[in-house]
Amino acid sequence: MLTIQDVTVAFGQRILFKDVNLKFLPGNCYGLIGPNGAGKSTLLKVLAGEIEANKGTITVGPNERIALLQQDQFAFDAYPVLETVIMGHEQLHAVLQERDAIYAKPDFSEEDGLRAADLEAELAELGGYEAEAEAGTLLNNLGLDESYHHMIMRELEASQKVRVLLAQALFGNPDILLLDEPTNQLDLASITWLEDFLFRFPNTVIVVSHDRHFLNDVCTHIADIDFNKIQLYVGNYDFWYQASQLAQQQRKSEEKRRTDRIKELEQFVRRFSA
Prior knowledge:
It is a single chain. By secondary structure, the protein is of the alpha/beta class. The chain is built from 10 helices and 9 strands. The protein folds into 2 domains: 27-53 and 175-274, P-loop containing nucleotide triphosphate hydrolases (Rossmann fold), CATH 3.40.50; 73-172, no CATH class. 48% of the residues lie in helices and 21% in strands. The protein has a 6-stranded mixed beta sheet with strand order 5-6-7-3-8-9, sandwiched between helices. A 3-stranded antiparallel beta sheet has the order 2-1-4, with no helix packed on it. The protein is elongated, with a radius of gyration of 25 Å. The model has no long low-confidence stretch (mean pLDDT 90).
């Protein structure tokens, strides 16, 4: 579970959202919507800890892991594709790196053996022995077959890098999955697979997307950023649209009622003042 309590985010005098209180629960997929510049991508970075809120607290459950879809296509250019995916689980990748470094030592000591045994136990607990198979399956499902898995990232085209970074975010069953425009540069088959993956995903998902059809297919809730607030709606994009249109009509009706009442009072005052 991810909890936002009294969170305010501003850049200088410009307030994106103020005093926000929300809970994002496991098993739900939240579509984050709002006008361009409202702060959707910024909120994802705040939730991931990449940007600090000006005020308030963001908490996750004990030992819960957050994964954010990375946007920098060049950040992993020096790494093999398969390793880039596994790097989505930082703890697991660090354990693999340390273990491999120990085994590569020419003067393997007794102390190294004890440490390696500890690392092997940690790998088993983290699912490290299935890591390459899981990473490979994700890549295959996103349209990158085995011929790409051991290539270096800089050898890939931009559209292929996007798929690797998406696989990286999905890798290792994160407790909280943050996706910023995940369908960019995906073909229909990959989008369909991603929709099915998110439908079956048991943990918390928060997604930003301009693809309304995608939001309709995957979202159980909509979080609408507008007027420095975030309003949560139950249902997909179409449910949100209907609810927001109804709310807008109610506001207009209330404004008209107030305007008509003011006119009546003004006429009353003029009539009795004469």
